[in-house]
Amino acid sequence: MGNFVSFSISVDEFVPPFLRYLCCNNLEDNLDALTHKIQDLQEMRDDLLRWVSKEEDSRLQMLSEVNQWFSRVGEVESRANRLLEERFLVIGRLSMYGYCSLLSASTYRYSEKVSETLEQVKTLKWERVFEVVSEKAPRMESRPTFYQPVGSREELFKTTWAHLMDEHVGTLGIYGMGGVGKTTLLAQINNKFSELGDDLFVLIYVVVASNEAENIQDEIGSRLGLQWERETKMEKAVEIFNVLKRNRFVLLLDDIGRKVDLAEIGVPYPQRENGCKIVFTSRSREACQRMMVDAEVEVKCLVPNEAWDLFKEIVGEIALASHPDIAELARIVAVKCFGLPLALRVIGNFMSTKRTVQEWRHAIYLLNSNKAEFCGVEDRIIPILKLSYDTLPSEKIKSCFIYCALFPQGFVIRKQDLVKYWVGERLISHEFKGYEIIGYLVRASLLIEDGSGYGVQMHELVREMALWIASVFGTQIEHRFVVLAGVGLKEMPKLKHWSMVKRVSLTSNQLQNITDSPDCSELTTLFLQDNNLKSIVGSFFRSMGSLVVLDLSRNPGLTELPEEVSMLVALRYLSLLGTGIKDLPHGLLNLTQLIHLDLESTPNLGSISLISGLLKLQVLRFYDSAAALDTSLLEELERLKHLGFLTITVREIDVLKAFLGSKLAGCTQGLYLQGLRVSGVSFAATFGALGGLHKLEMVNCDIIESDTYWEAKRRHQDFPSTSSNQITQSSPWFKNLLTVELFSCKGLRDLTWLIFAENLESLSIALSHNLEELISETKAVGVRVEPFQKLQVLRLEYLDALKSIYWSPLSFPRLKKLVIKNCRNLHKLPLNSTSVAIIYDLHMEVEKEWLEEVEWENGAKERFLPVIRTASVSQLHPV
User: Fold this and answer.
1) Residue 746 belongs to what domain range?
2) 217 and 344 fall within a common domain
3) pLDDT tens readout for residues 407-419
4) What angle do CA 319, 325, 329 make, to 5 degrees?
5) Do residues 119 and 213 share a domain?
6) Lowest CB count within 10 Å: 329, 344, 535, 822, which one?
7) How many Cα neighbours within 13 Å face the side chain of 736?
8) Do 294 and 262 sit in the same domain of this protein?
9) Model-level pTM?
């Protein structure tokens, strides 16, 4: 002991007695408090990161103050961990001396650091009060191309681009009649700027649904990530101006109808010095003149020879050669399309299946008979397009097509949503038929499929045609369809004859409180999604006895439904997705016809047990909801004989086991697990049996997978070959799994079971600190399947132990987004020069420091560097 004390004296100075007393009395208490407080802070950090990750999946970016909080948490966490690691050494030294008998200066300094760190932890916990964590980021958007440029169209683009590259041209107007190809030309401009890279420009593409300044402000603000509630038009203009004046921007405005006052909106006028550009399209040349553009370009109809070439290409040689007279009849049809590319494509697609002279003559007859009392060429196109509607094979398909006009102009409609609406409206009896109809309408060019394959939209002129038909061929008989979608409404529209309205779409507006009580006895569809709804008066529902579809989704401020919802006795489809609803009203039990109930992403929702009384329910969604499955609810759901589609939330291991053994497992497409602790399981054996599972998300789960399953498979060589058929016929192989999201799953060491999710499209993993490999080479021995062939999105964040994604380069033929953050031990990616075929479709986001140390396969660095976006560790999402 004496030698030990003598050693201490030679190194440290001693601390005065009064400080020694205070330090000894507080040190252990502070260490205990630091242990618990840092755990609390880590949990807060994890919860916040999950929130941010979900927002980023929706193309939002983290606020700088949130990012700074994350950085400070990381610094304090590292400091706290070092102090706690020294705890036993310091306490052991104190006990060896005898508490409070002798204290070295180094121990005193240690105690001071503990106190300081504890205060910093407390401060960070107090500061973590964020009502908003993200904002919409300025981003490039690839707009759909409605047809391939032909003939003079290539020269038109070259001329237009030359204008834009002229330093004296800051504003460019593109004008021409509807359907002539203005939007396609604007899309080419957008794509050309995209190829130049977002380091040069902030690129903003806005489809102008309304020419009101405030509506355009909202669209631009949305692209810039500005968060608005009650700001005035002037306040919005100031915010837009302050953002754009600091950036070199390109603003593309599609389809303006009259003069747009840039100053009123807040857009700085392009100057030669700042290099900014504004391009807009309009049907009117006068709009260009009123805007005083620096240059203008007219998009004209195709000349006869080009129009015939395009029409002939679309119809195809087989149809044209079916009879000697058809070619001449086809020329007559092409002439009646007035050289409009849209009309040529729509009518050409329709006629491509016609093989008899009689069919071609009948088409000419219909084109002539569809002529109405229209003045201009542009107006006459709508009844010409109606030919494609008139000849749709059934009234059912016609009704489904018209339904698509309920959505805002330029809006991408998710196919699965569209099919659900159709089923709810009884337009179709089964979902499979819905997807078949969508495919038919796409092939007929009446709908346009988006790049992902999951959504469709309408060309503006086709939508006008559909609304014209919906209003009884333009006679506007008391607004059978009321479509005021995305036009900036702040209150319900005032209509004289609500009683005659069939369908109403008020989606994507700014409605807050509904106090009206209209007589809507004929109303069957009501769209109120994507507003700012806070309340709905009960009397609003009293005269809606025919309503079958009600969509209130994505109104987070809506916390309750009035009991008068019980008056909706015909309702079949109800969506409360993304609302703040707290309880389901008892009046819901009166909705005996309800077949589809969506309660997903409802963070405040309590019990949903009363839905057991909805005996006709076929679809129930409560994925990522505060309401979770329990044994009682499980039994109630099993008694619903017609339930065939389910997404659920589970938070208890006993409930999960019971669920997996129930008949509900077979119809479950979405599974959200939270807070589960279990060991010795096999993912393949446990979840692979959920044959219909499309989405799996696990949050705060501590699941330790057993290696026994893999060892048994290797011994019996019971792995599928590269034959896709063999995989899909085997069980369990996760053949339908599309999306996997894992947050704070601490027990996971690898995710080798994903090798059999052959259709996986999106994989997001964060805060799983024990995860070392995505696919384990040891476990996967004998597996002859290349993973991730359909993967489009891969996000890896805060994975301290991750060392490998895959042990050799892989092919990622569909990869579009790769994000890697805070994976400090991941030094190599499974990418070589041929891993991704179309490199400019890929978005990569990594840290600058990580990129400097990553190891590349030969040729990979040169290939991927052009599409990588970097940020420093301390500023992952710069504005």
Assistant:
1) 705-879
2) no
3) 988 788 999 899 9
4) 75
5) no
6) 535
7) 16
8) yes
9) 0.72
